[in-house]
Automatic annotation (TrEMBL):
<keyword id="KW-0436">Ligase</keyword>
<comment type="similarity">
    <text>Belongs to the glutamine synthetase family.</text>
</comment>
<dbReference type="GO" id="GO:0005524">
    <property type="term" value="F:ATP binding"/>
</dbReference>
<dbReference type="InterPro" id="IPR036651">
    <property type="entry name" value="Gln_synt_N_sf"/>
</dbReference>
<dbReference type="InterPro" id="IPR027302">
    <property type="entry name" value="Gln_synth_N_conserv_site"/>
</dbReference>
<keyword id="KW-0479">Metal-binding</keyword>
<feature type="binding site">
    <location>
        <begin position="278"/>
        <end position="280"/>
    </location>
    <ligand>
        <name>ATP</name>
    </ligand>
</feature>
<feature type="binding site">
    <location>
        <position position="365"/>
    </location>
    <ligand>
        <name>Mg(2+) 1</name>
    </ligand>
</feature>
<keyword id="KW-0597">Phosphoprotein</keyword>
<feature type="binding site">
    <location>
        <position position="219"/>
    </location>
    <ligand>
        <name>Mg(2+) 2</name>
    </ligand>
</feature>
<feature type="modified residue" description="O-AMP-tyrosine">
    <location>
        <position position="405"/>
    </location>
</feature>
<keyword id="KW-0067">ATP-binding</keyword>
<feature type="binding site">
    <location>
        <position position="360"/>
    </location>
    <ligand>
        <name>ATP</name>
    </ligand>
</feature>
<dbReference type="GO" id="GO:0005737">
    <property type="term" value="C:cytoplasm"/>
</dbReference>
<dbReference type="InterPro" id="IPR014746">
    <property type="entry name" value="Gln_synth/guanido_kin_cat_dom"/>
</dbReference>
<keyword id="KW-0963">Cytoplasm</keyword>
<feature type="binding site">
    <location>
        <position position="328"/>
    </location>
    <ligand>
        <name>L-glutamate</name>
    </ligand>
</feature>
Length: 477
């Protein structure tokens, strides 16, 4: 049972903190690249002035934000986001904040939550729909040990899991077996699934935080790959929920001396972790994607799909924003790299789920994203791409109801593909982002800052560092 309070005002938020006995207030906010940041104050500082005028912080110390000569920024808590933090030793109420410029008093153009809020507002101005619902399926690995280091003269990583297929021969005093093989984790019962109780605890804590859980299970890969499905929500609220999701999953794991990663491809030779994202548009109480077309979709729903596919290469710069993301997007691992759509084909980038026949369940699923994405930016960009498809009445073409990986080469060549690496994705975004600028949802400044940071701080260093694999292949040349 979820325990999310119903809070509509500053007064409600302050009263909630008092009723819960909170003595501290944690102010959380999303940085540009997708990491939750926070600072904490005593609850005696919670008053209307704090919510309306905010609290200052140094914006130059955060990646891709302010220069040092213009570093002052301001946090303003959203009173409706109040939750009790389940991990603090002392009773602590938590608020999600928006970021403002203290000089102009205006929202900050690179605040991801503000961008997501603008996307929701833009949707309403189009008259197409009132609400966009999102349901991400963020997969993750639960490991028992992780070590890595990169220096001038060395580079290595090593992960370990008691479930790892590589540990069948390890002396564990005793080794009891029950280790899922490569691609063998979907989804046998215990004792092969040794993480059931841990995922249940994660699910219960999520519900305590107001995030409704649909299902949890082991995923395909060995080494502790898991999934906890959470109920869909509107765009901004879903991005908020996704941050609570990651926070809860990681901290519950830490309680048990385990660690969680949402890194898309931490294991070579096995499935990576995606974030298949379900989307639908509603107007009032009417689902707009249900109709008489292919797979029960409406013409508007198919146009939305067309927009996603048309802009998919640019979208990957935001939905798959790491160099590691493109080690998942390769053939052979259910990786949705071909930019096509289908009703049941999991190798296509867009799938139309057919589990239920109810019009309310009609939706599309974009399978390319992964959970390294900043949810606020990724969901906003996906909505803008789909709306562009509707506004321009795009045609998605014929569905591809075939095994894409077994298509003849000449037929496969006609199916567009996702970028092969992060650099290609950034080039695609640089060439195709006008659709993001509609309604000032994304600004040119925000897009340029994203591309610049990724190129300079992530892509270029990845080109310069030797890797252990290169030593294995080339040391004895």
């Amino acid at each position: 049972m979820t325990t999310a309070p119903t809070i509509t005002s500053i007064k409600d938020a302050i009263e909630f903190a008092r009723e819960q006995g909170a003595i501290m207030a944690d102010l959380k906010f999303m940085d540009f690249l997708g990491t939750w940041q926070h600072l904490t104050i005593p609850t005696h500082r919670l008053d209307e002035e704090l919510f309306e005028d905010g609290l200052g912080f140094d914006g130059s110390s955060l990646r891709a934000w302010q220069p040092i000569h213009a570093s002052d920024m301001q946090l303003r808590p959203d009173p409706t986001s109040a939750r009790m933090d389940p991990f603090c030793r002392e009773p602590t109420v938590s608020f999600i904040c928006n970021v403002f410029d203290p000089i102009t008093g205006q929202p900050y153009s690179r605040d991801p939550r503000y961008i997501a809020q603008k996307a929701e507002n833009y949707l309403k101005t189009t008259g197409i729909a009132d609400t966009a619902y999102f349901g991400p399926e963020a997969e993750f690995f639960i490991f028992d040990d992780i070590r890595y280091s990169t220096a001038t003269q060395h580079s290595f990583y090593k992960v370990d899991s008691v479930e790892g297929a590589w540990n069948t021969g390890r002396d564990e005093g005793p080794n009891l077996g029950y280790k899922p093989a490569l691609k063998g984790g979907y989804f046998p019962v215990a004792p092969n699934d040794s993480l059931h109780d841990l995922r249940t605890e994660m699910s219960l804590v999520l519900e305590q935080c107001g995030v409704e859980v649909d299902v949890h299970h082991h995923e395909v890969a060995t080494g502790g790959q898991s999934e906890i499905g959470i109920r869909f929500n509107s765009l901004v609220r879903m991005a908020d929920d996704l941050q609570w999701f990651k926070y809860v999953i990681k901290n519950v794991a830490r309680r048990h001396n385990k660690t969680v990663t949402f890194m898309p491809k931490p294991l070579h030779g096995d499935n990576g972790s995606g974030m298949h994202t379900h989307m639908s548009l509603w107007k009032g109480n009417q689902p707009l994607f249900a109709g008489e077309g292919y797979a029960g979709m409406s013409e508007l729903g198919l146009q939305f799909i067309a927009g996603i596919l048309h802009h998919a290469r640019a979208l990957t710069a935001l939905t798959n924003p790491t160099t590691n993301s493109f080690k998942r997007l390769v053939p052979g691992y259910e990786a949705p790299i071909r930019l096509a759509y289908s009703s049941r084909n999991r190798s296509a980038a867009v799938r139309i789920p057919t589990y239920a026949s109810s019009p309310k369940a009609r939706r599309m699923e974009f399978r390319t994203p992964d959970a390294s994405a900043n949810g606020y930016l990724a969901f906003a960009a996906m909505l803008m791409a789909g709306l562009d498809g509707i506004e321009k009445q795009m045609d998605p073409g014929a569905p591809l109801d075939k095994d894409i990986y077994n298509l003849p080469p000449e037929e496969l060549a006609r199916v567009p593909s996702a970028p092969a690496n992060l650099e290609e994705a950034m080039v695609a975004l640089a060439e195709d982002h006008e659709f993001l600028l509609r309604g000032d949802v994304f600004t040119e400044d925000a897009v340029e800052a994203w591309i610049s940071y990724k190129m300079e701080k992530e892509i270029q260093p990845s080109h310069l560092h030797p890797t252990p694999l290169e030593f294995a292949m080339y040391f004895d040349v």
